[in-house]
């Protein structure tokens, strides 16, 4: 089957510095939301191609953040060592430097682009859901057009234009099948906006 799915493959140049995993208290808010999203299959693994999807991050500094590790989508619960600390990115060069025991999510560059573009946001949640994605593609929602590939400088620029100075919001990536991103100043802001839409969808069905 030919799809737009572009999941799981690390496209950037990664330097992973072996370092202790983030502390549990640094990931607890992410883990809370992640466990719920996993239950709702907003984070998970595509059954046929066995590719994990969905990734969450939280800012820890001006341009640094903690993000779920690559290929962890199939796990219901993560330990601290499944998270990685991204300490430097270069969108133009497509490079990422991280610290930890696991490579950061293959979608780290987009998270970085959003943090860099908007100092008001501290949490970025990326989930996948086919029906939610279809609803958003066909509805009055912020979107990034289908010619913008995920994880690129163009995506970061498009996202920063959409966000402006907003402190929370959600948008659909038309060129990244099933892909939705929410953001907020707090984990609740970023998480609830996804949940509200998910519930709306459930009511419609
Ligand atoms: Zn994705």
Automatic annotation (TrEMBL):
Superkingdom as given in the UniProt entry: Bacteria
GO MF term list: aldehyde-lyase activity; metal ion binding
Gene Ontology CC annotations of this record: cytosol
SMART domains found in the cross-reference section: Aldolase_II (SM01007)
Residues of the Class II aldolase/adducin N-terminal domain: 35-205
Protein's name in the database: Class II aldolase/adducin family protein
Pfam families on file: Aldolase_II (PF00596)
Keywords: Lyase, Metal-binding
GO biological process: pentose catabolic process
Annotated organism of origin: Peredibacter starrii
Parts forming coiled coils: none
InterPro entries: Aldolase_class_II_sugar_metab, Aldolase_II/adducin_N, Aldolase_II/adducin_N_sf
PANTHER family referenced in this protein's UniProt entry, alphabetically: 3-OXO-TETRONATE 4-PHOSPHATE DECARBOXYLASE-RELATED, FUCULOSE PHOSPHATE ALDOLASE
């Amino acid at each position: 089957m030919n799809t737009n799915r572009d999941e799981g493959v690390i496209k950037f140049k990664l330097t992973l510095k072996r370092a202790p995993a983030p502390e549990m208290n640094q990931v607890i808010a992410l883990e809370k939301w992640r466990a719920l999203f996993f239950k709702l299959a907003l984070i998970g693994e595509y059954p046929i191609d066995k590719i994990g999807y969905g990734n969450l991050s939280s800012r820890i500094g001006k341009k640094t953040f903690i993000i779920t590790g690559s290929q962890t989508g199939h796990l219901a619960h993560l330990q601290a060592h499944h998270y990685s600390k991204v300490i430097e990115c270069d969108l133009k060069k497509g490079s990422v430097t991280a610290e930890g025991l696991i490579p950061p999510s293959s979608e780290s560059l987009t998270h970085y682009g959003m943090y860099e573009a908007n100092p008001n946001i501290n949490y970025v949640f990326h989930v996948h859901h086919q029906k939610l994605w279809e609803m958003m593609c066909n509805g009055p929602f912020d979107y990034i057009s289908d010619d913008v590939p995920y994880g690129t400088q163009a995506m970061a620029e498009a996202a920063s234009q959409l966000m402006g100075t907003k402190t929370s919001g959600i948008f659909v990536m038309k060129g990244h099948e099933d892909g939705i991103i929410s953001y907020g100043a707090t984990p609740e802001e970023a998480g609830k906006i996804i949940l509200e839409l998910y519930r709306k969808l459930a009511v419609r069905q």
